[in-house]
Give the backbone structure.
Amino acid sequence: MTTAIAMDTEDFKAATRKQWDEAAQSWNDHTPGIRAWLRSATDAMLDMALVRPGARVLDVAAGAGDQTLDIAERVGPAGAVLATDLSPAILELAQANARRAGFGNVRTLAADGEHLDVDAAAFDAAVCRLGLMLFPDPLQGLREMHRALKPGAGVCTMVFAGPETNPCVAILMSTALRHAGMPSRDPWQPGGLLSLGKPGLVDDLYRRAGFRDIATTRIDAPFRLPSVRDYVEFIRSSASPIREILRGLDAGAVAAAWADIEERLQRFDTADGWEGPNELLLTAARR
Ligand SMILES: C[S@@+](CC[C@H](N)C(=O)[O-])C[C@H]1O[C@@H](n2cnc3c(N)ncnc32)[C@H](O)[C@@H]1O
Protein backbone atom coordinates (compact mmCIF):
# COMPACT_ATOMS: atom_id res chain seq x y z
CA MET A 1 0.00 0.00 0.00
CA THR A 2 1.23 3.40 -0.99
CA THR A 3 0.90 6.40 1.31
CA ALA A 4 -1.14 9.35 0.14
CA ILE A 5 1.98 11.57 0.13
CA ALA A 6 2.22 13.71 -2.97
CA MET A 7 -0.36 11.61 -4.80
CA ASP A 8 -3.70 12.56 -6.23
CA THR A 9 -6.46 10.74 -4.31
CA GLU A 10 -7.73 8.80 -7.32
CA ASP A 11 -4.17 7.75 -8.27
CA PHE A 12 -3.63 6.69 -4.67
CA LYS A 13 -6.77 4.52 -4.72
CA ALA A 14 -5.89 3.02 -8.10
CA ALA A 15 -2.44 2.12 -6.73
CA THR A 16 -4.02 0.66 -3.57
CA ARG A 17 -6.47 -1.42 -5.61
CA LYS A 18 -3.65 -2.77 -7.81
CA GLN A 19 -1.45 -3.64 -4.82
CA TRP A 20 -4.28 -5.51 -3.07
CA ASP A 21 -5.33 -7.27 -6.28
CA GLU A 22 -1.71 -8.48 -6.58
CA ALA A 23 -1.39 -9.42 -2.89
CA ALA A 24 -4.88 -10.97 -2.60
CA GLN A 25 -3.81 -14.61 -2.86
CA SER A 26 -0.98 -14.15 -0.39
CA TRP A 27 -3.23 -12.40 2.16
CA ASN A 28 -5.70 -15.26 1.76
CA ASP A 29 -2.92 -17.86 2.19
CA HIS A 30 -1.92 -16.17 5.45
CA THR A 31 -5.47 -16.34 6.84
CA PRO A 32 -4.72 -18.95 9.54
CA GLY A 33 -1.95 -16.77 11.03
CA ILE A 34 -3.99 -13.55 10.70
CA ARG A 35 -6.98 -15.30 12.26
CA ALA A 36 -4.97 -16.45 15.29
CA TRP A 37 -3.38 -12.99 15.68
CA LEU A 38 -6.74 -11.14 15.59
CA ARG A 39 -8.94 -13.79 17.23
CA SER A 40 -9.94 -12.04 20.46
CA ALA A 41 -9.87 -8.56 18.92
CA THR A 42 -12.28 -9.73 16.19
CA ASP A 43 -14.68 -11.25 18.72
CA ALA A 44 -14.61 -7.98 20.67
CA MET A 45 -15.22 -5.99 17.46
CA LEU A 46 -18.29 -8.06 16.57
CA ASP A 47 -19.67 -7.77 20.13
CA MET A 48 -19.17 -3.99 20.15
CA ALA A 49 -20.85 -3.60 16.73
CA LEU A 50 -23.89 -5.50 18.05
CA VAL A 51 -23.63 -8.28 15.44
CA ARG A 52 -26.52 -10.54 16.45
CA PRO A 53 -28.62 -13.38 15.00
CA GLY A 54 -30.83 -12.14 12.15
CA ALA A 55 -28.85 -8.90 11.63
CA ARG A 56 -27.94 -7.41 8.22
CA VAL A 57 -24.26 -6.49 8.51
CA LEU A 58 -22.02 -4.30 6.35
CA ASP A 59 -18.36 -5.45 6.31
CA VAL A 60 -16.18 -2.66 4.86
CA ALA A 61 -12.69 -3.40 3.44
CA ALA A 62 -13.47 -7.07 4.03
CA GLY A 63 -10.38 -8.46 2.31
CA ALA A 64 -10.44 -12.25 1.88
CA GLY A 65 -13.35 -12.39 4.29
CA ASP A 66 -11.93 -13.91 7.46
CA GLN A 67 -14.11 -11.74 9.71
CA THR A 68 -16.94 -11.97 7.14
CA LEU A 69 -17.27 -15.69 7.88
CA ASP A 70 -17.42 -14.99 11.62
CA ILE A 71 -20.22 -12.50 10.96
CA ALA A 72 -22.07 -14.99 8.73
CA GLU A 73 -21.87 -17.54 11.53
CA ARG A 74 -23.15 -15.09 14.14
CA VAL A 75 -26.08 -13.68 12.15
CA GLY A 76 -27.19 -17.16 11.00
CA PRO A 77 -29.43 -18.00 8.05
CA ALA A 78 -31.98 -15.33 9.04
CA GLY A 79 -29.30 -12.64 8.75
CA ALA A 80 -26.95 -11.52 5.97
CA VAL A 81 -23.55 -9.95 5.43
CA LEU A 82 -22.41 -7.73 2.59
CA ALA A 83 -18.60 -7.86 2.21
CA THR A 84 -17.23 -4.82 0.36
CA ASP A 85 -13.67 -4.01 -0.69
CA LEU A 86 -11.77 -1.83 -3.15
CA SER A 87 -10.03 -4.90 -4.60
CA PRO A 88 -12.21 -7.15 -6.79
CA ALA A 89 -9.56 -9.90 -6.68
CA ILE A 90 -9.53 -10.20 -2.89
CA LEU A 91 -13.34 -10.15 -2.80
CA GLU A 92 -13.49 -13.09 -5.20
CA LEU A 93 -11.50 -15.03 -2.62
CA ALA A 94 -13.89 -13.88 0.12
CA GLN A 95 -16.85 -15.13 -1.91
CA ALA A 96 -15.13 -18.45 -2.63
CA ASN A 97 -14.25 -18.87 1.07
CA ALA A 98 -17.89 -18.22 2.05
CA ARG A 99 -19.14 -20.73 -0.52
CA ARG A 100 -16.63 -23.35 0.62
CA ALA A 101 -17.67 -22.83 4.26
CA GLY A 102 -21.32 -23.34 3.25
CA PHE A 103 -22.59 -19.83 4.04
CA GLY A 104 -25.45 -18.82 1.75
CA ASN A 105 -25.92 -15.47 3.52
CA VAL A 106 -22.77 -13.70 2.22
CA ARG A 107 -22.79 -11.30 -0.72
CA THR A 108 -19.88 -9.22 -2.05
CA LEU A 109 -19.65 -5.78 -3.62
CA ALA A 110 -16.45 -4.29 -5.08
CA ALA A 111 -16.60 -0.69 -3.85
CA ASP A 112 -14.48 2.12 -2.49
CA GLY A 113 -15.37 2.44 1.19
CA GLU A 114 -15.60 6.20 0.73
CA HIS A 115 -18.38 5.75 -1.88
CA LEU A 116 -20.43 2.66 -1.09
CA ASP A 117 -23.17 1.91 -3.56
CA VAL A 118 -25.63 0.71 -0.90
CA ASP A 119 -29.05 1.96 0.22
CA ALA A 120 -29.33 4.37 3.13
CA ALA A 121 -30.44 2.98 6.52
CA ALA A 122 -30.24 -0.61 5.24
CA PHE A 123 -27.97 -2.28 7.85
CA ASP A 124 -28.23 -3.23 11.54
CA ALA A 125 -24.46 -3.20 12.10
CA ALA A 126 -21.22 -2.28 10.34
CA VAL A 127 -17.59 -3.26 10.88
CA CYS A 128 -14.25 -2.46 9.27
CA ARG A 129 -11.25 -4.58 10.34
CA LEU A 130 -7.83 -3.07 9.58
CA GLY A 131 -9.08 -1.08 6.59
CA LEU A 132 -10.11 2.45 7.62
CA MET A 133 -6.54 3.67 8.20
CA LEU A 134 -5.79 2.97 4.51
CA PHE A 135 -8.50 5.38 3.32
CA PRO A 136 -7.16 8.77 2.16
CA ASP A 137 -10.33 10.31 3.66
CA PRO A 138 -11.40 8.14 6.64
CA LEU A 139 -14.03 10.69 7.67
CA GLN A 140 -15.81 10.12 4.35
CA GLY A 141 -15.56 6.34 4.97
CA LEU A 142 -17.27 6.78 8.36
CA ARG A 143 -19.93 9.05 6.82
CA GLU A 144 -20.72 6.28 4.35
CA MET A 145 -21.09 3.72 7.15
CA HIS A 146 -23.30 6.18 9.04
CA ARG A 147 -25.51 6.65 5.97
CA ALA A 148 -25.81 2.88 5.44
CA LEU A 149 -26.87 2.15 9.04
CA LYS A 150 -30.36 2.21 10.54
CA PRO A 151 -30.90 4.62 13.46
CA GLY A 152 -29.58 2.99 16.66
CA ALA A 153 -27.44 0.46 14.73
CA GLY A 154 -23.94 -0.43 15.96
CA VAL A 155 -20.56 0.13 14.34
CA CYS A 156 -17.03 -0.89 15.27
CA THR A 157 -13.72 -0.33 13.46
CA MET A 158 -10.30 -1.83 14.16
CA VAL A 159 -7.14 0.16 13.34
CA PHE A 160 -3.52 0.14 14.47
CA ALA A 161 -2.58 2.34 17.43
CA GLY A 162 0.41 4.70 17.11
CA PRO A 163 4.12 4.00 16.49
CA GLU A 164 5.07 3.86 20.19
CA THR A 165 3.04 0.66 20.71
CA ASN A 166 3.63 -0.74 17.21
CA PRO A 167 7.44 -0.81 17.04
CA CYS A 168 7.59 -3.46 14.29
CA VAL A 169 5.79 -1.18 11.83
CA ALA A 170 8.02 1.72 12.90
CA ILE A 171 11.17 -0.44 12.38
CA LEU A 172 9.97 -1.67 8.99
CA MET A 173 9.29 1.86 7.75
CA SER A 174 12.41 3.57 9.10
CA THR A 175 14.78 0.81 7.91
CA ALA A 176 13.25 0.65 4.42
CA LEU A 177 13.31 4.44 4.02
CA ARG A 178 16.96 4.59 5.09
CA HIS A 179 17.97 1.90 2.57
CA ALA A 180 16.02 3.71 -0.17
CA GLY A 181 17.70 7.02 0.72
CA MET A 182 14.32 8.61 1.45
CA PRO A 183 13.47 11.03 4.28
CA SER A 184 11.41 9.82 7.25
CA ARG A 185 7.63 10.04 6.92
CA ASP A 186 4.97 11.58 9.10
CA PRO A 187 3.25 8.54 10.72
CA TRP A 188 -0.08 10.44 10.77
CA GLN A 189 -0.08 11.01 7.01
CA PRO A 190 -3.56 9.92 5.77
CA GLY A 191 -3.54 6.45 4.19
CA GLY A 192 -0.55 5.24 6.24
CA LEU A 193 -0.68 2.08 8.38
CA LEU A 194 -0.50 3.99 11.69
CA SER A 195 -2.37 7.10 10.49
CA LEU A 196 -5.36 6.67 12.81
CA GLY A 197 -3.25 5.89 15.87
CA LYS A 198 -3.02 9.52 16.93
CA PRO A 199 -4.73 9.77 20.36
CA GLY A 200 -8.31 11.03 20.06
CA LEU A 201 -8.33 11.16 16.26
CA VAL A 202 -10.72 8.27 15.51
CA ASP A 203 -13.23 9.42 18.13
CA ASP A 204 -13.18 12.88 16.62
CA LEU A 205 -13.79 11.49 13.12
CA TYR A 206 -16.71 9.38 14.42
CA ARG A 207 -18.22 12.48 16.06
CA ARG A 208 -17.89 14.48 12.85
CA ALA A 209 -19.51 11.63 10.90
CA GLY A 210 -22.57 11.93 13.16
CA PHE A 211 -22.18 8.88 15.47
CA ARG A 212 -23.08 8.90 19.17
CA ASP A 213 -22.00 6.86 22.23
CA ILE A 214 -18.44 6.70 20.86
CA ALA A 215 -15.81 4.75 22.82
CA THR A 216 -12.32 3.54 21.89
CA THR A 217 -10.75 0.50 23.56
CA ARG A 218 -7.04 -0.30 23.29
CA ILE A 219 -6.33 -3.99 22.66
CA ASP A 220 -2.97 -5.67 23.02
CA ALA A 221 -2.63 -8.09 20.07
CA PRO A 222 0.97 -9.34 19.82
CA PHE A 223 1.87 -11.09 16.56
CA ARG A 224 3.18 -14.56 17.52
CA LEU A 225 4.99 -16.62 14.87
CA PRO A 226 7.57 -19.42 14.94
CA SER A 227 10.37 -17.08 13.83
CA VAL A 228 11.14 -13.52 12.75
CA ARG A 229 11.59 -14.88 9.21
CA ASP A 230 7.89 -15.84 9.13
CA TYR A 231 6.92 -12.27 9.99
CA VAL A 232 9.27 -10.80 7.36
CA GLU A 233 7.92 -13.27 4.78
CA PHE A 234 4.33 -12.20 5.64
CA ILE A 235 5.23 -8.52 5.23
CA ARG A 236 7.16 -9.18 2.00
CA SER A 237 4.25 -10.97 0.40
CA SER A 238 1.46 -8.60 1.52
CA ALA A 239 0.55 -5.22 0.05
CA SER A 240 2.90 -3.43 2.43
CA PRO A 241 4.32 0.06 1.91
CA ILE A 242 7.78 -1.47 2.41
CA ARG A 243 7.72 -3.13 -1.01
CA GLU A 244 6.77 0.19 -2.59
CA ILE A 245 9.59 2.02 -0.81
CA LEU A 246 12.18 -0.54 -1.97
CA ARG A 247 10.80 -0.83 -5.51
CA GLY A 248 13.43 1.44 -7.11
CA LEU A 249 16.45 -0.46 -5.70
CA ASP A 250 18.38 -3.21 -7.49
CA ALA A 251 18.01 -6.82 -6.33
CA GLY A 252 21.14 -6.78 -4.15
CA ALA A 253 20.11 -3.59 -2.35
CA VAL A 254 16.59 -4.96 -1.79
CA ALA A 255 18.03 -8.17 -0.30
CA ALA A 256 20.31 -6.11 1.97
CA ALA A 257 17.37 -4.01 3.17
CA TRP A 258 15.28 -7.09 4.04
CA ALA A 259 18.25 -8.69 5.82
CA ASP A 260 18.70 -5.51 7.89
CA ILE A 261 14.95 -5.43 8.70
CA GLU A 262 15.08 -9.06 9.80
CA GLU A 263 18.09 -8.42 12.03
CA ARG A 264 16.42 -5.41 13.70
CA LEU A 265 13.22 -7.37 14.31
CA GLN A 266 15.14 -10.18 15.99
CA ARG A 267 14.97 -8.12 19.18
CA PHE A 268 11.48 -9.62 19.60
CA ASP A 269 12.73 -13.22 19.60
CA THR A 270 11.54 -15.16 22.65
CA ALA A 271 12.28 -18.59 24.08
CA ASP A 272 9.11 -19.88 22.32
CA GLY A 273 9.49 -18.17 18.94
CA TRP A 274 8.91 -14.59 17.85
CA GLU A 275 6.46 -12.12 19.40
CA GLY A 276 6.02 -8.69 17.81
CA PRO A 277 4.27 -6.16 20.08
CA ASN A 278 1.12 -4.76 18.51
CA GLU A 279 -1.67 -2.52 19.79
CA LEU A 280 -5.04 -2.03 18.14
CA LEU A 281 -7.80 0.53 18.62
CA LEU A 282 -11.38 -0.70 18.57
CA THR A 283 -13.79 2.21 18.21
CA ALA A 284 -17.48 1.48 18.74
CA ALA A 285 -20.52 3.75 18.44
CA ARG A 286 -24.23 3.92 17.59
CA ARG A 287 -25.86 5.58 14.57
C1 LIG B 1 -5.14 -5.12 5.86
S1 LIG B 1 -6.38 -5.65 4.72
C2 LIG B 1 -7.69 -6.14 5.82
C3 LIG B 1 -8.65 -7.10 5.19
C4 LIG B 1 -9.64 -7.76 6.16
N1 LIG B 1 -10.55 -6.80 6.72
C5 LIG B 1 -8.91 -8.51 7.24
O1 LIG B 1 -8.85 -8.00 8.38
O2 LIG B 1 -8.39 -9.60 6.96
C6 LIG B 1 -6.96 -4.08 4.11
C7 LIG B 1 -8.06 -4.13 3.07
O3 LIG B 1 -8.53 -2.79 2.85
C8 LIG B 1 -8.89 -2.67 1.50
N2 LIG B 1 -8.97 -1.24 1.17
C9 LIG B 1 -7.95 -0.34 1.11
N3 LIG B 1 -8.43 0.87 0.78
C10 LIG B 1 -9.77 0.74 0.62
C11 LIG B 1 -10.81 1.63 0.27
N4 LIG B 1 -10.60 2.93 0.00
N5 LIG B 1 -12.08 1.15 0.20
C12 LIG B 1 -12.33 -0.16 0.46
N6 LIG B 1 -11.38 -1.06 0.79
C13 LIG B 1 -10.12 -0.60 0.88
C14 LIG B 1 -7.81 -3.45 0.77
O4 LIG B 1 -8.19 -3.78 -0.54
C15 LIG B 1 -7.63 -4.65 1.70
O5 LIG B 1 -8.45 -5.73 1.31
